[in-house]
Known about the structure:
It is a single chain. It contains 7 helices and 12 strands. It is α/β, with parallel strands linked by helices.
Amino acid sequence: xxxxxxxxxxxxxxxxxxxxxxxxxxxxxxxxxxxxxxxxxxxxxxxxxxxxxxxxxxxxxxxxxxxxxxxxxxxxxxxxxxxxxxxxxxxxxxxxxxxxxxxxxxxxxxxxxxxxxxxxxxxxxxxxxxxxxxxxxxxxxxxxxxxxxxxxxxxxxxxxxxxxxxxxxxxxxxxxxxxxxxxxxxxxxxxxxxxxxxxxxxxxxxxxxxxxxxxxxxxxxxxxxxxxxxxxxxxxxxxxxxxxxxxxxxxxxxxxxxxx
Length: 260
């Protein structure tokens, strides 16, 4: 099992990691409330232990009432009929937890996607989850040549406690392929809120700024899935909680497909 900590500070001479692939396909979708359930004493005991000592508005009755979408169901619906060629690597990015902790989206995706790809998850990075996923992918491709990489950014709102919930279940998929351009990504910690916009503009002025740089509310949960719908040439976002800036620049040889 691999675990990723906070991003290591990048040098000012080379802040970008390069994924030697261009963006081929973009898919984005919002979902209706799911029908998956958490019934059973095992889940009640699990969430009771998990919530102990945390003021998250938990009660055992909420487990029996909970209903939602798992990351597996979101991925399967989003990708249905979209992938026919082998994929080498998949990175699943999210901030909030999966609906059912008994299920593993990476394990399932390895089994069902063409090529049996190596699959990982990154989480706990707020609205920069997608940026970190691309940074991880760039590191793997640098060590092992690959032809296709799939990034999945997902968020779901079905939680068995009364804490703050995302406003929608949503997912974005970005398929990258060798020979179709390149992608640069930077994840820079230690940036003060007052300096974030100037720092982003100094490195690569963005065509789209995320809510962390504009002050607007995040419309699709803490993972900012909507930011990745129809991505422009350069996009940037900032996580004020962690003081981290994310920038991604796409150099395309052809235009990606339109999102769903």
